[in-house]
Write a structure and sequence with these properties.
Layout (H helix, E strand, L loop, with lengths): L7 H23 L1 H4 E3 H10 L4 H9 L6 E2 L8 E4 H29 L1
Helix pairs in contact: 1-5
Length: about 110
């Protein structure tokens, strides 16, 4: 396994995201309704979290974020877990950092 080189800023951001993920997991355990967002509220929440909507859509398409229907009717609202969204965003962020590092190493080795 190749070591991954990360900038201090990146490590700091990952630690902050991990702390936030732990907090959201605690919220999900102790107050489940507070963890859930309707689809319309997700867009506002993403804006506050400085996350692009297309990033969310891509993670949803890949199955990393799954809505839950509350109610039995087909028009019952879809809800998303904040903790699941954050977990998917952290995983995507780590994946992009690893990919960037591998590309950097590949570029340095070909020179």
């Amino acid at each position: 396994m190749m070591p991954v080189m990360l900038e201090l800023e990146e490590v700091s951001r990952l630690v902050a995201q991990a702390v936030q993920m732990g907090y959201m997991q605690a919220v999900q355990v102790y107050d489940p309704p507070q963890d859930l967002l309707r689809k319309a509220d997700v867009v506002r929440w993403l804006r506050i979290a400085c996350v692009e909507r297309r990033t969310f859509t891509e993670l949803e398409k890949r199955g990393l974020i799954r809505p839950v229907r509350r109610g039995t009717g087909k028009n019952s609202p879809l809800y998303y877990s904040k903790q699941e969204i954050i977990r998917a965003l952290v995983a995507a962020n780590i994946s992009s950092l690893i990919t960037r590092d591998r590309l950097r190493n590949l570029n340095t080795s070909t020179k």
